[in-house]
Amino acid sequence: MATIKIKQTGSPIRRTGDQRATLIGLGLNKMHRVSELQDSPEVRGMIRKVQHMVEVMDGA
Questions:
Q1: For residues 21 and 28, what is the distance between their CA atoms, to the nearest angstrom?
Q2: Residue 35 to residue 4: CA distance in whole angstroms
Q3: CA–CA gap between residue 44 and residue 13 (Å, rounded)
Q4: For strand 3-8 and strand 54-57, is the pairing parallel, antiparallel, or unpaired?
Q5: For residues 11 and 3, what is the distance between their CA atoms, to the nearest angstrom?
Q6: What is the pLDDT of residues 1-47, one digit of tens each?
Q7: Radius of gyration of the chain, Cα coordinates, nearest whole angstrom
Q8: Alpha-carbon distance 45 to 13, whole Å?
Q9: Distance of alpha carbon 37 from alpha carbon 12, whole angstroms
Q10: What is the pLDDT of residue 26?
Q11: Is 37 exposed, middle or buried (0-12, 13-18, 19+ CB in 10 A)?
Q12: What pTM did the predictor assign?
């Protein structure tokens, strides 16, 4: 299955609790951390929720 790389570019400081939880669910909780996940509709929805704090990089 295809994978997608996500890099955290924004801080979770002063964000809502559900946005913080979404970052943790994506495997991100510190600035500039990169996570590689399977490309699925669920992951795409999580990315859309915190799109202002993450950057989608090239998938592997």
A1: 10
A2: 8
A3: 23
A4: antiparallel
A5: 24
A6: 899 999 999 999 999 999 999 999 999 999 999 999 999 999 999 99
A7: 11
A8: 21
A9: 20
A10: 97
A11: middle
A12: 0.90
CA dihedral 46, 25, 29, 48 (to 10 degrees): 0
Largest CA distance in the chain: 35
Distance CA 50, CA 32 (A): 15
Convert 7-22 to b/e letters by CB count within 10 Å (16 or more is b): ebeeebeeeeeeeeeb
Which tops the pLDDT comparison, 44 or 60?
Answer: 44
Tokens of 15: 């964000």
**Residue appearing with tokens 């090239």:** 58
Three-point CA angle 10, 33, 9, nearest 5°: 20
